Q: What sequence folds into this?
């Protein structure tokens, strides 16, 4: 198990690593284990790889706002990351990151970087009341939770996911009808959360449409992640809530709290509606 | 007054017009009347200008998702808009729009365009209960509503804003403490709403921190706007809600319904915390 203060050696750090490429940009090796089924890599995982490249080119250490447009489904294997720096000041810096594979660009990300602190919030949304981790339902340990016809995504073996039983009925043939999921998350190898981990957590649950009884794939079109504070060690709590479903589109909001109850990240995505 | 089906001649259409420039991109003349005070142009206005350029280069007629990074405060006057097209398919198209003035880039926008419909939503957030327009408080007609030390922004003369009295206490020296504003909006010249108008409405209210009794400027860093349906003619209802305020940052969500009660747009922004 890696040390809390030395994430080297964790599956997440290995799978999101970037290094300088020959042309001044970065290269990454996208890992096939971070998929959502059918060889499709998770959008939050891809966004974390882009965030790593943005931070590597920034005077500031943390991603605070990322907006990604998913141009094509990315596959595992080598990827190039070009970072175009924008204005950089004492408080924050902007950049644009383009991820490409052999077929061309797959993901474009506007990144704002800054330095996050552990200061207490002046105002924040309180953490919802959820049973403790040991009373929640493990996705990885319950193959039966895979919706009919879908393989279990690799992601559930990388990110340990414990569903609030109140939002797990869909997996047992009793969808609540309400597109809401709540779950405790941490990396399966106990690598502690940090801002990059939160970027991945911000898209790591099954589609909220599963809770409403629809098991089709819902490809993300645009995903915005805001990281608000440095997370404390331990489990994070995620609440994912589906919004409006209309005209072939739906949106989904995530709110993430750390183990101390602090709000640490939020995301919103527009996706195509599940079939 | 312009015809409903002929928006030419409206102040909004004139102020957001783009035309082909000599280098293949677009040029616009940013209008000083769409400011939020101190000569700073409204972020939603600038985003609508960028959206017009994105739509002009797209096979699809409407902006459905826009994520803008505000690099510097833009000033009125000539602006250049470069549109870099991304993948375009039958359902949607991506592009990246960069707005620049003489000093360099001011705003970078990832745009997703598609064709919106008037189809009924399968699920949507219901419109909140707000008094009718005639019982609400006009920002333009109440100079007293300007916070101490701030001039009345030009925007309130372009976008007619009628505050729900329940969220107007801040203007009368009785801030509710809750960072929530609700208001009916339409253009002052009765130009009917469309997807581009919704992009501007999605950032058109005073900062929600005003309702909580803080009257400092809160510059937008990143703004994401999702347009979900074609709005019906008439007033739109906007609810703006401040989220977490921590470490010098805050976030704000807008939800917009049209006159029939349909949810037509949403936005989320990360801003620097008001002083």
A:
């Amino acid at each position: 198990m890696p040390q809390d203060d030395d994430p080297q050696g964790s599956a997440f750090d290995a799978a999101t690593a970037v290094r300088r490429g020959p042309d001044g940009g970065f290269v990454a090796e996208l890992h096939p284990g971070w998929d959502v089924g059918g060889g499709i890599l998770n959008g939050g995982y891809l966004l974390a790889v882009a965030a790593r490249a943005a931070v590597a080119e920034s005077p500031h250490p943390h991603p605070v706002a990322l907006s990604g447009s998913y141009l094509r489904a990315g596959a595992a294997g080598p990827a190039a990351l070009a970072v175009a720096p924008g204005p950089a000041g004492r408080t924050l810096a902007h950049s644009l990151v383009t991820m490409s594979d052999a077929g061309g660009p797959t993901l474009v990300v506007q990144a704002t970087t800054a330095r996050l602190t552990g200061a207490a919030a002046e105002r924040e949304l309180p953490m919802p009341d959820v049973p403790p981790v040991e009373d929640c339902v493990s996705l990885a340990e319950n193959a039966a939770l895979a919706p009919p016809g879908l393989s279990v995504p690799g992601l559930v073996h990388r990110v340990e996911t414990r569903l609030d039983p109140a939002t797990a009925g869909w997996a047992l043939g009793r969808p609540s009808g309400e597109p809401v999921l709540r779950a405790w998350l941490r990396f399966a190898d106990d690598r502690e959360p940090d801002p990059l981990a939160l970027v991945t957590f911000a898209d790591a649950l099954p589609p909220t449409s599963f809770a409403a009884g629809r098991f089709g794939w819902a490809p993300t079109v645009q995903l915005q992640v805001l990281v608000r504070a440095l997370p404390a060690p331990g489990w994070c709590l995620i609440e994912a809530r589906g919004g409006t479903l209309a005209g072939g589109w739906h949106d989904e909001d995530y709110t993430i709290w750390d183990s101390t109850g602090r709000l640490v990240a939020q995301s919103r995505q527009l996706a195509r509606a599940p079939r």
Notes: Helices of chain B lie at 11-16, 43-56, 155-158, 195-201, 208-211. The first strand of chain B starts at residue 18 and ends at 20. The mean pLDDT of chain B is 91.
